[in-house]
Amino acid sequence: MRVIQKLMYAFILLAISTLIGVGIVKAEGTPSPLQVLINEAHVGDTLHIPAGTYKGPIVIDKPLQLVAESGAGATISNTSNEPALQIKANNVSIIGLTILDETIKKQPAILVQANDVLLDDLQIRTGSFGIIMRKANNGKVLNTTIDWAGVVQDRPLKLSDKGNGIDLYDSHGNYFAGNTISSMHDGIYMENSDRNLIEDNQFELLRYGVHCMYTKGTVIRNNIGNLNITGAMIMAVRDVEVSGNQFTKQSENVNSQGILLFDAHHTIISGNHVEGNRVGLYVEQSTKNKIVDNAVIGNFIGIQLLDAEDNDIQENQFVGNVASAEARNSIGNLLESNYWDSFQGIDTDGDGKSETTYAINPFFQSLVKARPAFQLFFQSPGMVFLEDLYQSDRQSWSTDTSPLMQPSGKLKFVLPTQTLQNSAVVGAGLLIVALYFMYLGVRKR
Known about the structure:
Elements: H1 2-20, H2 33-40, E1 46-49, E2 52-55, E3 58-60, E4 65-68, E5 74-77, E6 85-87, E7 93-95, E8 98-101, E9 110-112, E10 118-120, E11 123-126, E12 131-134, E13 140-142, E14 145-148, E15 166-169, E16 175-177, E17 180-182, E18 188-191, E19 197-199, E20 202-204, E21 208-213, E22 219-221, E23 224-226, E24 230-238, E25 241-243, E26 246-248, E27 257-265, E28 268-270, E29 273-275, E30 279-284, E31 290-292, E32 295-297, E33 301-306, E34 312-314, E35 317-319, E36 323-328, E37 334-336, E38 339-340, E39 358-360, H3 363-370, H4 381-389, E40 398-400, H5 417-444
Parallel strand pairs: 1-4, 2-5, 3-6, 4-7, 5-8, 6-9, 7-10, 8-11, 9-12, 10-13, 11-14, 12-15, 13-16, 14-17, 15-18, 16-19, 17-20, 18-21, 19-22, 20-23, 21-24, 22-25, 23-26, 24-27, 25-28, 26-29, 27-30, 28-31, 29-32, 30-33, 31-34, 32-35, 33-36, 34-37, 35-38
Antiparallel strand pairs: 39-40
């Protein structure tokens, strides 16, 4: 009650000064009523914020709780070039507020520079970054919505104009759950930030849903990504877990993937569902990873291995992909007990595994590396024919030694049948383009 009385008192003073034109006139740099309330609060106080719009920027430099009153529309509106809300003290909690910060700038809507901070049930609309965390450890961001609200004048909006939804640097042991991030640059970006847990979030219309750089011990679990360029971008990492996620319809860009591993080591990719992407699983210059029990469905390319060695790839299911697999310079990988719907094996002992092996032909990938323009002939009849003829150095090919004869019963499809049909139509379109170029080449002769 004491807190509400102080806040009401501040508003009354501001209203009286406006009506009489004298007395308290808010000069530049004078704290807003909410900032006054925060300044006067004692360490550990809980401030219950009534409905209303409060002008930012706001700075919190002591342990406090700011909680929007139940059912109240409490908004911090910021038009300055500073963060709408800056947290400099440990053990701060912000619950239930809306942050409206549409100015296009370098500073984020919320800047966290402290440990053990809780951000829960926030609505953030930003023309910059949503939340930036710097040397901020053991915090939580829960049940929060972050989306882009900036407006670029006199030119089309570019992806690079946007900031990341949540951006971490040198911030460890944080927990992100139940958040929805859309139309930003990356959803959650982590650099030099270890042991963070990202689970049960939704990412849509982003560059990368989750982006790891130089991290250890990160866990990315049970998230949903849709219509991004790449669902999970895992780069220069060790001991990362990517499990139980669903990444669909990452296919609108030439570099789109469901899950990408680059320079990733001792990482587990398990139980994920990647469907309707350009490439389901992309693995490059990565070693000693476990890629197990993933459903790779209806992608243009199921799995792509480039300079990837000593990985354990088992019990995955590759179904309905235009090309099940491609590989180049990827030796020493353990491939076994995967299901490839494009492969017809022979099971003589009835154990459900083929006695004939499934070898991933490197011809197309080697050709494209030398002549990138030949990507136009992806899966064209002529290219498939040449690939079948190519048998050079077969002992170095990536090979599944015991492919499964049947998919497991737990296989499911997420996208509607029409979406998969559309992918087939696009594949047919690529075939027609390839045949057209071949025809032009014959005519010129």
